[in-house]
Amino acid sequence: MEKRVTFNEKTLPYLLVLPQIAITIAFFFWPSWQAIYQSVLLEDAFGGNTRFVWFDNFAHLFRDPAYYRSAMITAVFSLLVAGLGLSISLLLAVMADRIVRGATAYKAFLVWPYAVAPAVAGVLWGFLFNPAVGIVAWTLRIFGYEFNYVLNGGQALALIVFAAVWSQISYNFLFFLAGLQSIPKSLIEAAAIDGAGPGRRFWTIIFPLLSPTGFFLLVVNVIYAFFGTFGVVDGLTKGGPAKATEILVFKVYNDGFRGQDLGGSAAQSVILMAIVILLTVVQFRFIERKVHY
Amino acid sequence: MATVSLRGVRKSYGGTVEVIQGIDMEITDGEFIVIVGPSGCGKSTLLRMVAGLEKITGGEIAIDARVVNELEPKDRDIAMVFQNYALYPHMSVYDNMAYGLKIRGVSKGEIDERVKRAAKTLEIEPFLERKPRQLSGGQRQRVAMGRAIVREPKAFLFDEPLSNLDAKLRVQMRVEIKKLQRQLGVTSIYVTHDQVEAMTMGDRLIVMNKGVAEQIGTPIDVYAQPASLFVAAFIGSPSMNFLETRIGADGSLALDGASLKPKTRIDPGRAVTIGIRPEHLSVGSGFDLKVELVELLGADTLVYGRLSDGKGLVVRLPGTEVPKIGDRLPVKAHDGAWHLFDSETGKRLGAA
Amino acid sequence: MVENRPWLTIFSHLVVLIGVAIIAFPVWMTFVASTHDAQTMLRSPVPVLPGPHLLKNYSEILTQGYARTSGIPLTIALFNSMVMALGICIGKIVISIIAAFAIVYFRFPFRMAAFWAIFVTLMLPVEVRIVPTYGVVAGLGMVDTYSGLIIPLIASATATFLFRQFFLSVPDELAEASRVDGAGPVRFFFDILLPMSRTTIAALFVIQFIYGWNQYLWPLLVTNKESFYTAVMLVARQATAVDATPSWNLIMATAMLAMLPPVLVVVFMQRQFVRGLVETEK
User: Residue B255 pairs with which residues in a beta bridge?
Assistant: First the structure.
């Protein structure tokens, strides 16, 4: 799409895009280039000597069991976050969509978690499940289930999944609700006249029509789980216990800032960049398709 | 008040596609010029070139003897009424009308006076404080007019200003715009695709087709002596009947048994298209028409039929005459009502 | 709904109510914790109903801070968060709207290059380039400054696209009419385009304010001095401090106050929020 009218000024447009472009170059392109550049260098511990090492950093990474473990954890984590997040919010959206009276009030009560920082969300859930004082941990103990995310890696992972899902639920909910409300009422009525009950209508009419929204949200949720959940992890488990919740983003940060392994961290950054570019392309491909409906 | 001159005006995009192929015209002071043509003929582009919204790639445009090719729209002293009115949605009607004056540094008192006066003329005084979205289509149209009037420009430019209105309102506004233009005496250029608007409003018309001015003339000229097949077909409703034939050896035309004598000499053997308007045919001995369809319009009756050689013809009869489908209807042409066109070039050859 | 089945409606209400309850529960417990004293909050089970120490806890945290991890009063961190959130939010809107204006309303060499340069930043979230970005910021001497907190985060492809989308939907004739009226590009921008963009700006403001306020990783990197810590940072620091017995009442009071501004914005500007959320993802 292009505008027909244009103003004739020659320098003004450059001045207008300058701030955006300058910041983009300084804080996006240059650092990204640096990440790529550093990923093929090896720096000694004191930062004095650097050596060009081709793809050694990558090779080293792919031989590193810790990296595989982190990748596996990330995969499980994102599957759980996307799966749980989408199904819970779909359920809530479908139910809320059925409710005629009071729907806006419910909506108001469901959207605000979006405003809570993931790091704070991590802290809130950590408090609920705190082994010493957490009310949920205490309740579970009464039922004979020992919940201690500080010691148990699986439980820690479950906990960051809860917190991450909680953070993202309002977003998913709003999109599903918008998707549901955009389905023409006449379609539902036609199906009802054809004799389909509510459950059948959902699976044969509503669910297929909602699938574009669902797919879009799936990609968004995976991106969120990969990159948006740093705060949840740092506010809750700091990657522990024993690196059981060290997702890839957290590992980049940990290796780069704590471990001072610049080359390795940069190589990880490059891999993450590739992942996020891939996901973004998928997302745009999909949006293009949606436009043509 | 001003004259507008177009001298060999051309427009091309990227030097290859020429959308305006050389237009020449002198518009006198106070004249109402209508540019009419089908969509894509370049009529809006021509108007926008006068406005300064499109670059002129060849020739020149002068307003009041001053060449304006390189001038910004604001320096050309023109006002424009857009098809979708282009009212600023966040400004009140008053502010919409005052905006151009404010930019030009007109004093507050004078702005107020001019806006009030224009509002009175256009009968939009009660709406001055409203936003455009609170107005009906007709009212918006008036505000767009008002915005042009308050500027007291040298020329008004109208870009299909009535095409977003319903049919009834369109007729009403047509009359009002024409009256207003008479009253103010401002030179106006008006673009439309509606030939009725063109015929009723224009002092002169430019009939455009594919970037070329097919004919420039008064509405009556254009109707009575169309310069080309295109003009003949475009002006008039229902459209002129066309029949393809050849000039005979004796310089006359044979048509369904009858013979026509062209008023000017045309080379024998030449392929010509003869045209006749449905309203210039009436019942009487001449041709036999086999009636296929009859449309009753009340005042008129349109008869669709075929001649014995299979050529189709439309006849417009008074509403009192209602032939039956399948009947044979004898029709005759009015004297001198035949138009002759060269079949290859489409140019007018004369009458018969 | 199409047919009248009371039990189905009741079931719907029930499901949504349970959802609301589960979603609200962590925040309720946080609130309750912030109203008791430290001793109560160390005995399991912790109370589930509010106690009498609300004012005391909040005033302590606001004026003195949480002594176990850092001595700065929360007021300072809240102020920092506010500066950062407003700075990111306003900065993003300003540089995006003028960039979109240039890209939509002008034709100039490198226009498409500029467009794509902005576009690909979508693909480079700060998380994947933290170490080198920190290097740039450190090199520019922007560590422990407000500009270091704000400027690297204000380039935004989404905001630029949103404005571009909106500008493309503005009829061409409006710009032409203003040109005929005598307005140049700057005047057109301020008199016509900016007022027309109000709703888009409001929607973006809400989204970007939340985005700015909730930043975590970035402030963590570029602040060393406690006086530049943000509220969200303080919450995480207090909660994950390992060595001391936690004062949950104070930590949770901090958390409540760190959540409050963005939650209020969402609650009171819900329409703009929903609009902004849905539109920035198109």
Answer: B258
- Given a contact cutoff of 8 angstroms between Cβ atoms, the answer to whether C75 and C66 are in contact is no
| 3-state class (DSSP) for residue B346 | coil
Flag whether residue C52 sits within 8 Å of chain A, measured between CB atoms: no
Please write the tens of the pLDDT for every residue from B113-163: 999 999 998 999 999 999 999 999 889 999 999 999 999 999 999 999 998
The predicted complex's ipTM stands at 0.88
Domain edges within chain B: 4-227, 238-350
Mutate to test the interface with A, among C129, C254, C272 (most CBs of A within 10 A): C129
pLDDT of residue B251: 78
- How sure is the predictor about B29, in pLDDT bands with cuts at 50, 70 and 90? very high
Write out pLDDT tens, residues A176-198.
988 888 888 888 888 888 877 77
What integer pLDDT is reported at residue C98 of this predicted model?
A: 94
Q: How many domains in chain C?
A: 1
C74-105 vs C248-268: helix crossing angle, rounded to 10: 30
Find out whether B33 and B204 touch, Cβ atoms under 8 Å.
Answer: yes
- pLDDT single digits (tens) C56-96: 888 888 888 777 776 788 888 899 999 999 999 999 999 99
Mean pLDDT of C34-58: 81
Q: Is C127 on the interface with A (CB under 8 A)?
A: yes
Q: Rounded distance, CA B243 to CA B341, Å? A: 10
Nearest CA-CA distance, residue B15 and chain C, Å: 18
Domain of residue C135, CATH code: 1.10.3720.10
Distance between CA atoms of B255 and B285, rounded to whole angstroms? Answer: 14
Neighbours of chain C (3+ CB pairs under 8 A): A, B
Residues of chain C contacting residue B73, judged by C-beta atoms under 8 Å apart: 176, 179-180
The pLDDT assigned to B266 comes to: 79
B99 contacts chain C (CB < 8 A): yes
Domain that holds residue C206: 34-278
Q: Beta-strand (E) ranges in B116-174?
A: 155-159
Of C182, C192, C196, the CB nearest to B100: C182
Q: What is the pLDDT of residue B147?
A: 92
Q: Is residue C21 part of a domain?
A: no
Q: What is the residue whose two structure tokens read 């149209």? A: B141
Which of C23, C233, C251 lies at the smallest CB-CB distance from A166?
C23
pLDDT at B191 exceeding the cut of 70: yes
Q: Does B103 touch chain C (CB under 8 A)?
A: yes
Cα distances from B264 to residues B251, B259, B339, in angstroms, run 10, 15, 11
Beta carbons within 10 angstroms of residue C113's beta carbon: 11
What's the CATH architecture for B4-227? 3-Layer(aba) Sandwich (3.40)
More confident residue, A61 or B316: B316
**A275/chain C closest Cα distance in angstroms:** 9
C228 is a domain residue? yes
Place of tokens 């160390």: C42
Relative orientation angle of helices C157-169 and C111-120, to the nearest 10 degrees: 130
Residue C199 lies in a domain: yes
Amino acid at position B144, single letter: A
| Per-residue pLDDT tens digits for B312-343 | 899 999 988 888 898 888 988 888 888 999 98
Contact C236, A232 (CB under 8 A): no
How many angstroms separate the CA atoms of C215 and C125, rounded? Answer: 12
The yes or no reply on domain B238-350 and CATH 2.40.50.140 is yes
**Is the pLDDT score of A291 beyond 50?**
no
Q: Mean pLDDT lowest for which of A32-41, A225-234, B198-207?
A: A32-41
| CA atoms A6, B89, B177, B74: torsion sign | negative
Residue C200 lies in a domain: yes
**Mean pLDDT (whole number) for C156-174:** 88
Dmax over CA atoms of chain C, in Å, equals 76
Are B21 and B211 contacting, i.e. CB atoms less than 8 angstroms apart?
Answer: yes
